[in-house]
Every structure is written in C-alpha cells, then in structure tokens.
Amino acid sequence: MKQYLEINEWSIVEEGFHREHNKISESVFSLGNGRFGQRANFEEDFTGETMQGNYVAGVYYPDKTRVGWWKNGYPEYFAKVLNATNWVGIKVEVEGENFDLEHCEVKEFTRELNMREGYLLRSFVAKLKNGKEIKVIAQRFCSIVNDDLGAIRYSVTPLNFSGSIKFTPYLDGDIKNQDANYDEKFWDEVSKTADAGSAYITLKTRKTGFEVCTGMRFSVSQNGQTINFESKPIAREKFVANEIIVQAQQGEETVLYKYAAIVSSLNHAPADLLAACKKGLDLAERKGYETLLQEQAAAWATKWEESDIVIEGDAAAQQAIRFNIFQLNQTYTGEDERLNIGPKGFTGEKYGGSTYWDTEAYCIPFYLATADQKVAKNLLLYRHKQLDRAIENAGKLGFKDGAALYPMVTMNGEECHNEWEITFEEIHRNGAIAYAIYDYIRYTGDESYLTEAGAEVLAGIARFWAQRVNWSEDRQKYVMLGVTGPNEYENNVNNNWYTNYIASWCLEYAAYALNYVNGQTPDKYAALVSKINFKTTELEKWAHIVENMHYPEDKKLGVYLQQDGYLDKEQILVKDLPAADRPLNQKWSWDRILRSCFIKQADVLQGLFFFEDKFDVETIRRNFDFYEPRTVHESSLSPCVHAILAAKLGDEKRAYEFYLRTSRLDLDDYNNDTEDGCHTTSMAGTWMSVVQGFGGMRVRNGQLHFAPFIPGKWNSFSFKVGFRGALLKVKTHRNGTSIQNQSNKPISLFVYEQEYTVGANSEVEIKKEDLVSSK
Amino acid sequence: MKQYLEINEWSIVEEGFHREHNKISESVFSLGNGRFGQRANFEEDFTGETMQGNYVAGVYYPDKTRVGWWKNGYPEYFAKVLNATNWVGIKVEVEGENFDLEHCEVKEFTRELNMREGYLLRSFVAKLKNGKEIKVIAQRFCSIVNDDLGAIRYSVTPLNFSGSIKFTPYLDGDIKNQDANYDEKFWDEVSKTADAGSAYITLKTRKTGFEVCTGMRFSVSQNGQTINFESKPIAREKFVANEIIVQAQQGEETVLYKYAAIVSSLNHAPADLLAACKKGLDLAERKGYETLLQEQAAAWATKWEESDIVIEGDAAAQQAIRFNIFQLNQTYTGEDERLNIGPKGFTGEKYGGSTYWDTEAYCIPFYLATADQKVAKNLLLYRHKQLDRAIENAGKLGFKDGAALYPMVTMNGEECHNEWEITFEEIHRNGAIAYAIYDYIRYTGDESYLTEAGAEVLAGIARFWAQRVNWSEDRQKYVMLGVTGPNEYENNVNNNWYTNYIASWCLEYAAYALNYVNGQTPDKYAALVSKINFKTTELEKWAHIVENMHYPEDKKLGVYLQQDGYLDKEQILVKDLPAADRPLNQKWSWDRILRSCFIKQADVLQGLFFFEDKFDVETIRRNFDFYEPRTVHESSLSPCVHAILAAKLGDEKRAYEFYLRTSRLDLDDYNNDTEDGCHTTSMAGTWMSVVQGFGGMRVRNGQLHFAPFIPGKWNSFSFKVGFRGALLKVKTHRNGTSIQNQSNKPISLFVYEQEYTVGANSEVEIKKEDLVSSK
Fold first, then answer.
1. B95 and B448 in contact (C-beta within 8 Å)?
2. Where do the Glycoside hydrolase family 65 C-terminal domain residues begin and end (chains A, B) (predicted)?
C-alpha cells in the first residue's frame, strides 16, 4: 500500500516526482476514450522506470502459447491486447542535451489527472546536466468528442538561458509488447510518409492483419503566436518524425501543439485509413487545441452529469469513486458491440485478452443503471455471437451435444488462457454469463431477450453443467469435481459451493427460459429445439441434478463450505498474518497459499451476493462473519462484494473499510501491482459498492428497492440510476434520503420496504425518522 | 502399442526399414557406456524422421525456466542433459549423390542391437536416385572397456557400378537441444583442429562451463587391406571433418573405420582435454577396431555373467528382461558418485535433469543386488551431499529450521522442475529418499550409514513432514493438504494415502535413526544435534503426528482411499474405456483426466509394496483388486509394482501380463512415447518384477526370503543376487528351485518360509513337492 498521491475531489495529483512509483503513476494517470488509450508515459524521452503502453480497442494478436509442460486441451494461442504505435512521443533537446527527467534535477513537479475535464497535466522545473533550467508544462487528452483524436500541448520555458531547443515529435511503431511469449514483435509496417509538419504510419498486426494508421501534425507558438519553423522529416523502419529547432528566449514560453489521429481497420477499409486519418487531423487543426480541450471538458461535464456519484464530507472517498467512474468511462462506451472490457482497460498489458467473466459479474450492473439499455444488451449479444466458439471450446475438453463452455479469457470467443487450473477448471465463468442474462432481464424487464438469444445461450451452458457433474454413488448426490472457484487461491477442488450453486441455478434458469420461449412463441421454440437438437429428457436430467446436488456445509458452524474439506485447513485469521507476509501472492510460494485457509476473493460470499434473496439475513451474516476474516482480497474483484454485504448487514465499519479498499485499490496500490495497470473491471464493483452497498439498491419483482445506509464520516452521498425509462437521483444525507425523478416517467419504488411513488420530474424526501430499517 | 521388432533372445532386431517408427528405433537401439551415450541415429545423412541425440554424463545446462504464468517458488532454471557433439556422423556421397536413406529404395534392411556383445549393427541394400545400388554394413559401439571411446565400422559395397565414393567423417558440435526453452544453443566453441586423418573439437557449455573435447581418427580398407587415401580437412563453426574420396569396385567392400574419443572436464582439467582425447585415440588405433570389438564382447560377457536373468521357454520375455538389464548397464555403472540415473538415460532429452525419485524407489534395489554395495551407497551419498540444497529448497517454499525437501528433478541438488502441482506438491519424493536409506541398510546390514550420513538426511526429511502436515481441528487428526501423489493423474489432493503413510513412516524411522546414533555413538549424536540444532521436543512432535495421522479409507470396501473424496468419482473400469481414448494423456484434456477415477501409476499399491510387511495379504488383495482395474499404467513406473504384487497374490495371469508390460514397455511402445527415449529408470522396476515378483525375494530381519512363482509359459527362470558377501544364482523350474551359492560365504535363507543353509560354492535343490506356499 502506498499513499503518495494527493487527495482531491476532482483530480488525481502527484506533488513532487515519485520516480520510484512512476510505473504506478503511469497506470493511474492513464487516458482513454473507448477507442484507444494509453498509459501516462512522458512525451519526452525517459530512461527511468517506465512501461510504454498505447492500445487500440479491438486490435489484438494471438501470441503462441507458452507453457512449461503442455497439457492436452490447451489453446494454441493467447490473444493479447497490443501495444501500438506511440503517438505521444516528443523528443526534446535543450542546447544539444537530450532532455530526460531521469538525469535532471526536478523541482516543482506536479502531475494531475483532471477527471472533471478529462486531461492529463504535468508541470515542473528541470535542471539538465548542462546546467540549463527549463520549466515544462505538458498537457494532453484523448478526445471523447472525436474519438480518433488525441492532442498535446507541450510547453518549454528556458529559465536561466536563451538558446536552441530541438523538438522531435514522432510516431513510433517499432514497439514491442512487454508481454510477448517469444520476444517477437507483433506489427509489420504497411506504409509511412513523413513530410514537413506531418507524418503518417500504417502498421499491420501479424496473423490477425488489423491495420492501424496513426498520423500527426503540429504547430509551434511563442509568446502566444504561432511561428514558422523549419521541419525536417525523418523516416526509418516503423518510425516517422520531424525535427524542429527553435530559438527560445529566457523566460519565454515555446509551445509545441501535437495532434494525432488513430484509426483502425475495425472502422475503416484498409485502403481508406490514411484518408480517414488525414480527415481527423484536418478537423483537429481547424478546431485548434483550445477548442478541442473545451469540447472535451464539456463532454466530460455531460458524462459526469449522467454518472457522477457525490460524496460529501470525505474527500478521499469522493476522489476514489470519481476515479473509478472516470476510468470506466474512459475504457468502454458501449457503442461498439464488437468490443468488451479488458481487465486493465487501456492501462496495461497484463491479462491479455479483453473479455473475462468480470464483464458479466461486475460491469453489467454499472452499465444497466448508468447507460442506455443497449449497452448491456450489446455485452450479452457479444457472448451470444460467440456461442459456437464456446461449444467448440467445450468439445476440446471432451463435452458434446451442444454443451458450451465460455472461455476464461478471449478476444474472439476462442479460449486463450493456458493454466490448466484456470482454463479447464475455473468454469464458474459459465454461470456468470447466465446470471448476466437474468440480471439484464430483471433490471430492464426485457424478457424477449430470452427468445431473441438468451435461451439458446442458457441451453448450451446448462448442457455443459449437466455433463460436468457426476453422480457419486458414495454420496448418492451429484458432485462437481476438479474445479477452481472465483477464489483462485484454491485449485482443483471438489464441490466448490459457489460453482455447484450457480451450476444448479443455471439448470433451473435455462429450463425456465426454454419454457418461457415455448409459452410465448411456440414456433420460435420449435425452431430453437430443432436448431440445437434439444430433447425433453434433458429437462428431466436437469431437474434431477437440481434436486440432488451436493452442497458442502458445516451444520455446526452454520456456514456453507467453500469446498469439500475446507475445515481441514489450519484456521488462521488474516489479522494474525504478519504484515511482511502480504500480499501473499508475492511473498508465499504457491503451494503454501493453496493449502492455507486464505481466500483471494469472496467465493461463498459471491454466491450469497448473487442469490441474496434465497438466503435469510442470519445465514448471510454467519457466512460473512466466517469468511471475511479469512479473505486477503488479493483479487481486485473481492472488496466490493464484501462492501455490499457488510452494508446489507449494517456493519458500518467493514462496509466503509471495504469501500475504501475497492475504490482506492489502484490509487493506494493496495495489492502492490498497480504498476501493471489499473484494475478496470473491478471499478464497476466499486460503483456497485456505493449503489448496491450504501444505497442498498436491489431489483425485486420488477421494482427498485433502496435501503440507504450512510457511513458516519459522510455528510451525504448521491448517485443516479436509470430504470425502465425513469432517471433517479438518490441522495442520502444524515437526515434522510431524497429521490428525485429527473424523467417524465413516474415510478413507484421501495425504500426500506415502504412503497413510494415519485412522479415525473418530482422529488420525494424521506426523513430519517420515517425510515424503518429492515435489519 | 507397436510390435514391429523381432523376438530374439539376445538381440533387438528390426527387419525391413520401418521409417515411420524410426524415432522409436533410435531410442530402443541406443548405445551407452555410463560415461556417454547416444540415440541410434544413422551415421550418414538422414532427412527422414529422426531426433539427434548424443549425451555426456554429468554435463548439463541450466535452461531459463519457461512457464505460462509464473508462480512464487518456481526455480529460475531447469537443468537439462545436453545434446552434445555428434561423433557418429559420416556423410557419404556415391558418384556425386548424397546418400540419404529417405530418398533411396531400401532392401534387405536389418538393424540389430546385439546385447550379448554390446554393439549396434545395420545392414541393407540401397538404391540411390542416380540408380547406384550399394550394400552398407554399419557397426558401432560405445566401449565399456575404455569408456572414453567409441568406434564405427562403416562399409560400402557398390553392387551395380564401380565409381567414386566420398566419405566425410565429421564431428558436429553445432547442435541444438530439441528441448530448449528459448531456442538458444547451449554450447560455445573453445577450439578445434582438423588435420588429414584426424580432427578435434572442444566445446564449452554456456553458464555451467563444462568442456567436452571430442576427437576422431579413421582409416579406410578395401579387400581387407588398409589403403592410403587423400584426406581433406574441413573446419567451420563448431564443426570439423575430413573429406575422403575413394574409388570402389563393383562387388568389393570399402570400409571406413572411425574412432572417436569423448572426454569432459568432469574428469580432466580443461587444459588436458585435448591430450586425453589424443591418448584415447592412440589406444584405439593401436588396438584396432576388431580388438576393441572383441574386448567389448568380453566385457559384456562378464556383465551378463553378473547380472543376466535367464528365462527359458518364452523368448519375448527373455528378450525383454535382457533389454532392460542391458540398458541399465549402459546407463549407470555406479563408479562415479557425482552421477545419477536420468529417467531416459542416454536415449533422449525429455525430463531434463538426471535425478528423480526413480533412483531411490526403483533403481537402488537393482544395484543393491547386482553390484558392489558402494554403488547403492554412492547413490545415497549423492543425496546427502545435496542436503543443504534440499534445505534451501524447502526454505523457498516457506519451511524452516532445517526442514529438507529434496527436488523433484535435479542435476546439482537445486530444484529445477516448474509445474506447481509437481514441483511444490509431489513431495512424496522425500519419502522415497528416506526409504532408500532403510532399504540399503536392510539389504546390506550397514547400519553405520545412519551415523555416517543417514540420520542427518532423515532428520531434515522428518522436519519437513512435521511442518508440512497440519492439525485439523475438524477431524482431530493431522492432515496433509495439497499434494500430488505418485499417481500424477491427481493434482493438489488432500490426504493422499501414500504420502501420508510414507510421511508418518519417515517420522518414525528418523526417530529410530537418531536414537540409534545416540545409542551407538553418543559423541557423534551430540555433534549432529549441535550441527542441526536438534531439539528433543521435535521427537515428541513427531510421535504425536505418527499417532494421529489421518489415513483415508473406506471401511465398507475395505480399501485405503487414494485421497479424500476418491469415491466421489465416477467409478469406471479401464476395461470399459474405448481403445481410441488411450493413452489418456494423449487423448483426453487434462481436466478430464484429473476428475476421472483413472490412475496413472500405482499409488496406494506403491505404499503397500514398500510396506508390505505391515499389511495382511487380504488387505493387499482387496486394495489390489480395487485399484488395478482403475490403473492405466501411463507411467512407466506403474506395471512393475503391479507385477510384483500380483505375483505375491498368486495371480499368475496379471503377474505375467504386467511383467510383459513393464519389460516390453519400450520394445512394444506401450504408451506411444518411446520415440522420446526409453524409460530407463523403470527398467530397474522390470528387474524387480522378476526377482521380487516371480522370485518373491524379500529381506526380513537381515535374511533373504524367496517365494518363487513361475508363470505357466516359462520352463524356468533364473537370476543372480549378491547378498552380504554371498553370490546366489536362483533358478526356478517347473519342478522346483535350485539355489547355487557361487561365493565362499555360506548363507542361510528362507524359501517359502522354510530355512535352508547353502554352503560356500554349494547348491541346494528344493523340489516342488517340498515347497509349501505361504499363500
């Protein structure tokens, strides 16, 4: 855990240059616009701690699998989000010395991620080895208005001299992935041009053949006036640049404006890429930097208007939730159904592929409440389109007759992970994909989705579970052997409670879905039955499994057991672990972690969270009280679920603690891994921890329920949710809760199980004394 | 399974060229002399299916570990036996065409591994693409008399032409390992010379700095007369050769004799290597090929005299056991305490390092009975020397206070395997290392070994187990979680019966050993206690564990359970598996194997075999009858244990079936993997299956016991064992058993629990009617 960043409600601020944490800062200060994004690498050369990262959404490379010992069933390739052309680079030479902060004395350093307006700003005074002092202010953004554009304002002011400054703005496509299995480079050059004042480079990914064209133009101003300059084009393998030498006067600012356009063959025919790129740059030049920046601020203002969560009285909490929302909005806009939400967004390479179960389990609730219904639906359809691949994937593992196993990691539906304990065994992911369908329908009421696509997906998933369990003669129950649950600190366990539970639930829900389709649209049901060769006996088999599934539990303790034999472990609590031992995944050998009782991520609790209405509060409390003290939260996906359950249980201390942990995970580098990138998908979990946790929001029988619960430190908190045409702003303060309906659609809802109707564009104020806690 | 090789009691014979199986043949026809060895690659160029392989004992390379996802505790390097300079190569050009069997019509092809005399012979007629027909006879051997020498007699007879033949004998050090994690080459050139008639090349391994000098000389004869020839030296990077052009007459034989010497810095100072190499070649030239070959035959005759097993009436069985004994003798001579027995000997690269638990569990009994006592002792001392590394290794996994975990795979004591489920969890290896000490002392009576080294090793091992178990509050027993047993088709299981049992046994035996040392030599005990900081409370802790260990069992079935929950698996028998599904490890995905009930290798049965005297016969029978039908024997180490137990239980059918399976594993390619190399260490298990299986040999209370059991197909079988100064030839025929004492030391022993005394150089004949079966 590191707390070197300043607390500020609207910005992330680094005061003073924390060289040793620069890779963390590069992750945290990342920018993106859904289409492309980047780590907060410096524009100028930097030889200190850094990990270069520029990424283009949907552009991936299937890197040949690397393992120590091949196991049958492994995928041939691991699809990776690719490090792409670096468009931010500006080499700066001051009186002949290459400017590199690693070799400078640095003063007055400030780095700011301005979340309100959506830009990154860096300013500092640097003294070079040749004694020259310069003040630098570098500002840039990835436009969310014109999502193929980025812009940089890079200013240098000589402080103790007048002399020459050479700027070399460049586009560098000669990059490699840090995460490359065989140290190969993944891009080939297609074409490039470098002229005075502009340059373009088009690269193509090997194997997948994605083409990305990146272009740049620039201008220079001094004393606020655009100046003419000599510009010497440079081109070499996968690299284009321009050299500009200007004379700068002591105390006077020289500004380089650099515009970049990034367009890919996902959105343009390859032959049109250059033209599209130039068109983008024409627009950028026409508008100019300041206008682009103003438009950016305005667009972000709208985003905040839609999705902000306001917490009064607790700046750290406020900053954190905004950081989470900001990063989510930077990563995925929901406009392109081919895209999904990578676990690190545009902030790092780790974890490769873009799609994990995180999307279904954590992100969909966020988009359901804060975006148009089609965003969540696009995410569901993404999986429906990949159903054939999921069936293929299951086939590779020996399943048949239409059984579908969705991949653990994917870009295109093919499995591309290669640890057997995860690839083959972390099959609960299939359950989350089914759950997301349920969640979507529960929230939107759009039950027709079952007919459109949902029932087919559910049938494939149910078939998988029906084949994956086996009948234990010994127990006279169905068991599920050799799985890894959400808690990845157990591998190859038997009867993971969560997996058994969600599998059984899937079988029930799939049966419901098929019956629903049959009841509503018998012709479509007949078509589906014929398409997937469905047999009624399958429903009987599913029902038999549902009735006879084994669920490990300990009756004495009154808790469900994470898996068979969990109580054989030495029961130590996290609080008794030496601080030096954590995070366990960096300090302990793997076998030690596996045989310990320590939990990476809520597992039984994840199940209780998903299926909360099926358990009484005391059962949830007993399980929470048992598992929480054993959980180390070394998965980013863990604390949010704990925060929500703690809030439900009225455990303010823990709810607040877990809220801080989930929301400030990256800001405070809780797990000592933010340098690899931010934990983007878990940020949606942070949003849930406020809305479902402190707000107590649930959907039951097609209606919203709230049970607000305000931490002692907060004066108020408010969030917005859209629900079936209504748009609600829910604000809880110390004296009660107000619900403002900002739409034209009246809505009736429940607060602490009492029904209220909130008229169109009206507000209901519920005083604290009127609130009846159900707890 | 493939049966393309001929049955012959003294030779392995391939009639007709089986191109498609050439890599299998290269493994099976391998040669070695304990110091170096090689696959049966052709001398001339061959572009068909081949895997080049020349290996020098003790010369290894620590290849940087490759894994898909790094886990804490993994070793940095995987030490590999290295493919070394190819010294057999002779390029042959016939009237200008490069001779390559892949592009020839081949007739009258015979390949023979003559085990009686220790050479490899190949003869055939080949028609080249240019129409020239030649008869080739190639013979070679690795001298066991001068163990730095190899020799080749390569003869070519033109059948349908007279013309030029160009021979290019060469030494090629520009080879790479097939098993290289990052496609690196592992050798650097140190020096080379090529003169007319001779050439030398010295290479050095990267990182480890082993130097190996290889030299060659050669002569040519026609019509039995040595001829003069022009010889053109060739040298290029890591390659030296000579070109020789001779004119050959139709029907007349031209013979190239090539002598090679292979010397390494393990046995010579680097500066002396070239001189040592030349000295070897001087000797070879002085003796000449025929003398070397005669000496080889004589030396092998002696080896056979010492270690042959004769089976009359069953040529396949006879051939097979000789093949196993032959390969064992080729691999390890026991003379060099720095060496150990690689699982593939000199026949392939797979499995890397040289030392596995195979040595202790399978090989030591063979050497105890067939070699000088010092051979087995050297193998024990090898581990004692590596105790510090074993303590280090345990330390990396979080163990402390002198706990020792021996590596799964090693060259120098460091762990170098990198699958977590094996590296970290297949810890039963520690038990086998303790068991070997017990086995050695039981056989030799040399209890002083405990004081010399054994007790210290046992204490380290016991400390590991004492820390590795944990107290289960739930069971009120000690449990051992997260292990992989000998059956590697289960990973990360809890309470593997075998591991729990041997762990507990180790604790008892270590306590015994320490008490023994204390009783015999209190001063040495005090020194040991001080050296390892031993505390008496440790003995108490060990005793508590021994008394309270959990052993999974099913009382209803009356069997021990391989691990907790084994009976939850779907219980299918191997006989009901479709043939197309086998071997499972090539046909099923890994997860499917893991959750099936199928067993790779005896696991409970391995324990019953080791500790047979602690169980009654009916218990062994029930477990055998339960587990045998579930075992697929996809580990080479499996069938021998089954053969021994089946023989003990009087189950002739299965004893014979498993004997064939273990003994003909490579000859018949049972597991479809002989192309990677032979299963050398399991060959000692084959020896056990005859001596301990059919011979029923056991040691109890310092005396030999026999319980011979002859399969119906055999007329007789006989084997030799040395025991505490006596040398016995035990021959069982249909009418009884004779025991000949070929030593000057009288011995009393038991046959079917009846005591006999066999005088010095005497024989006892026990008629069948006098045999009382204890079964």
1. no
2. 697-758
